[in-house]
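User: Sequence recovery, please. Input:
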């Protein structure tokens, strides 16, 4: 059975992810490197595990979470689709059963808010985990540039902490974010992330849960 550690150690995976990070940095976007990949991998698995999913589904969610942004090595545009195909080819080369690799491919191909949809438990967990990673460490520009220009980076810079809490009995998947409102207002967050939160609501619904957004202790969704 192909595990996540074997995938992480593969030379092709390392090369593709390194190039993804290089292109994202050159384009001036927030960090999409191994840090983000590892967090999304962990949270994707935790969401399904907390809802009682079989460990095999948890394993596939963790793999999809780690590989989900590798398409950025091709181009930021349509990175979900190109990354899905890359992941399928790599996973089958490493010995994963085609049906499992196809599950991962489908999840990765649906994680982006522009064209993505929650079409499986794995894709739904990946969507929520990916959109939940909002944190100041992801910002690579200078503070002066961020505060004067880019609202997306300003939102990330303001985020001191973000995490997911799943209440299986209540059927709630909650995204908690703590932000510094001197840098970014709550309305700024909604301006940038409204479409992402809509997708998270649909993903939670697929998992038979309700999505909740809590910022600085206040329930907003």
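Assistant: Recovered sequence (221 residues):
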């Amino acid at each position: 059975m192909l595990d996540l550690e074997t995938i992480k150690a593969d030379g092709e995976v390392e090369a593709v992810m390194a190039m993804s990070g290089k292109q994202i940095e050159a384009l001036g976007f927030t960090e999409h490197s191994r840090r983000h990949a590892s967090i999304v991998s962990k949270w994707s698995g935790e969401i399904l595990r907390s809802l009682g999913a079989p460990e095999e589904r948890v394993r596939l969610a963790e793999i999809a979470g780690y590989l989900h942004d590798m398409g950025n090595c091709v181009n930021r545009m349509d990175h979900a689709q190109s990354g899905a195909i890359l992941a399928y080819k790599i996973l089958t080369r490493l010995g994963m059963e085609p049906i499992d690799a196809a599950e991962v491919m489908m999840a990765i191909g649906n994680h982006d808010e522009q064209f993505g949809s929650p079409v499986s438990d794995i894709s739904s967990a990946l969507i929520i985990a990916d959109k939940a990673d909002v944190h100041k460490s992801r910002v690579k520009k200078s503070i002066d540039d961020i505060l004067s220009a880019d609202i997306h980076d300003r939102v990330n810079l303001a985020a001191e902490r973000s995490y997911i809490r799943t209440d299986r009995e209540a059927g709630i998947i909650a995204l908690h974010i703590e932000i510094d409102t001197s840098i970014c207002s709550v309305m700024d967050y909604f301006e940038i992330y409204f479409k992402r939160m809509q997708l998270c609501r649909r993903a939670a619904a697929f998992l038979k849960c309700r999505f909740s957004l809590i910022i600085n202790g206040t329930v907003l969704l």
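The longest strand covers residues 159-167.
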